[in-house]
Amino acid sequence: MSAITRDEVAHLARLSRLALSDDELDHYAAQLDAIIVAVAKVSEVAAEDVPPSSHALPITNVYRPDQVRPSLTPQQALSGAPAVEDDRFRVPRILGEEA
């Protein structure tokens, strides 16, 4: 027995304001039925002793301590910029908004 019928697909299409032909209704009914059957199979396999998870392996963030290192001065960083204003890159306005 199908998990979803052609009439149910037609009802969903009406609720979604989709105009589906008879061929499309049959096609989508078969596809949705296959999806529902596949999900049901997965539900059968899932054991109660297995906790829900988002990843198969545990994930932990790896942090390193912050270390101060020599870096470029603002003048060195901006030395190759085509336009500079107040120690920043100057770029053309693109949205026409007031500054």
TrEMBL record:
Single GO term (MF): asparaginyl-tRNA synthase (glutamine-hydrolyzing) activity
Keyword field contains Zinc-finger: no
Keywords of this entry: ATP-binding, Ligase, Nucleotide-binding, Protein biosynthesis, Transferase
One GO biological process term: translation
EC primary class: ligase
EC numbers for this chain: 6.3.5.-
Transmembrane regions listed in the UniProt entry: none
UniProt catalytic activity: L-aspartyl-tRNA(Asn) + L-glutamine + ATP + H2O = L-asparaginyl-tRNA(Asn) + L-glutamate + ADP + phosphate + 2 H(+); L-glutamyl-tRNA(Gln) + L-glutamine + ATP + H2O = L-glutaminyl-tRNA(Gln) + L-glutamate + ADP + phosphate + H(+)
Span of the signal peptide: none
NCBIfam families: gatC (TIGR00135)
Chain's role: Allows the formation of correctly charged Asn-tRNA(Asn) or Gln-tRNA(Gln) through the transamidation of misacylated Asp-tRNA(Asn) or Glu-tRNA(Gln) in organisms which lack either or both of asparaginyl-tRNA or glutaminyl-tRNA synthetases. The reaction takes place in the presence of glutamine and ATP through an activated phospho-Asp-tRNA(Asn) or phospho-Glu-tRNA(Gln).
Similarity comment: family membership: Belongs to the GatC family.
Subunit structure, as described in the record: Heterotrimer of A, B and C subunits.
Protein name listed in UniProt: Aspartyl/glutamyl-tRNA(Asn/Gln) amidotransferase subunit C
Organism classification: Bacteria, Bacillati, Actinomycetota, Actinomycetes, Streptosporangiales
